[in-house]
Design brief:
There is one protein chain. The chain is an alpha/beta fold. The chain has three domains: about 80 residues, Arc Repressor Mutant, subunit A (Orthogonal Bundle); about 100 residues, D-Maltodextrin-Binding Protein, domain 2; about 100 residues, Periplasmic binding protein-like II (D-Maltodextrin-Binding Protein, domain 2, 3-Layer(aba) Sandwich), CATH 3.40.190. It starts with a helix and ends in a 6-residue tail after the last helix.
Length: about 300
């Protein structure tokens, strides 16, 4: 098979931009020449990689799969070339980790500290994203590991053979409110029949935890009493608004440990309004990365984080 590595760089540029003209500019060649190289790649592989009928263009299923291979091959090639040029062969490997915003702020630092020995000779490059962006990054090979929530409602569905996971810990999605003055009782309570309309600090429709909440409340009449007064995609944003007394918010318990301990916020509903959450680490089994494989084996043998 006649094959040129520059075609892989071309294809990665096209996948990043979804535009032949912008990808050609990035690769410093004319668009007709760039298009011919992508076509040559498809001809060599004997499969279509790009759906050109849409604007912007999009990758075919075969293209999505090949993108993972292209990123892996180019990463390994650059690493090998660097070592051959005399760089320290024992230098630390850098793993790219995409994490849900609330986990990046409240879980990841403690998890890294707790497993410092396991992370030996590794550098972690953390990027906080919303869940949809993080999933996209993992599928396209833009990150090595993904740290997000998993719930019993199967809000997140990934093929376990392609995207294996390790459970790192557990928490709960709990409803919270500021307390009444000089009291441990919540200002807004899901258990009180006297409050006919409860101000809700909500997740935006596409937010992962918002889908978890909607599925939990789907058959519960309490949802009819909840009136949205504010929404955001980020749990940290809801926590901040809850602290102002604007309403109730469902927030992962690990994000509000200090606020609950110091009674700045109190849980304002019974257990039936709590959603168990797992904290999971995902990888893509189609990508061969020695550093990821080694770390995965070590983490699989570790106890869960508290």
């Amino acid at each position: 098979m006649d094959f040129e590595t520059r075609w892989l760089e071309d294809f990665i540029a096209l996948a990043d931009t979804l535009s032949f003209s912008r990808a050609a500019e990035r690769r410093f060649i004319t668009q007709p020449a760039f298009s011919r190289r992508i076509k040559a790649l498809e001809t060599t592989l004997a499969v279509p990689l790009v759906d050109r009928s849409t604007t912007p263009v999009k990758l075919t299923d075969e293209g999505q799969l090949f993108l993972l291979t292209a990123r892996t091959v180019m990463s390994q090639l650059r690493e090998t070339v660097s070592r051959l040029r005399g760089l320290d062969a024992n230098q630390k490997a850098t793993l790219r980790v995409a994490a849900a915003h609330s986990l990046a702020f409240s879980f990841f630092p403690d998890w890294m500290t707790e497993h410092r020995a396991v992370m030996n000779n590794l550098t972690m490059r953390l990027v906080a994203m919303n869940v949809e962006e993080a999933l996209h990054a993992l599928r396209e090979g833009q990150c090595d590991l993904l740290q997000i929530y998993y719930d019993s409602y199967a809000t997140l569905q990934l093929d376990a053979s392609t995207f294996p996971s390790i459970t790192l810990g557990h928490t709960r999605l709990v409803p919270v409110s500021v307390p009444l003055p000089d009291s441990d009782q919540p200002r807004y309570s899901l258990d009180s029949d006297e409050q006919h309309e409860i101000p809700l600090l909500a997740y935006t429709p596409g937010a992962f935890l918002g889908r978890t909440l909607r599925l939990m409340l789907k058959q519960d009449p309490i949802r009819l009493r909840l009136k949205t007064v504010y929404d955001t995609a980020m749990a940290e944003g809801l926590k901040g608004m809850a602290l102002t007394g604007a309403g109730i918010a469902w927030v992962p318990e690990l994000c509000i440990r200090r606020e609950l301990r110091e009674k700045e916020l109190v849980i304002c509903g019974a257990d039936r309004w709590h959603a168990p959450l797992e904290i999971r680490l995902y990888r893509c089994s189609l990508v061969r990365n020695t550093a990821v494989n080694r770390l995965w084996q070590r983490l699989s043998a570790q106890p869960l984080s508290a």
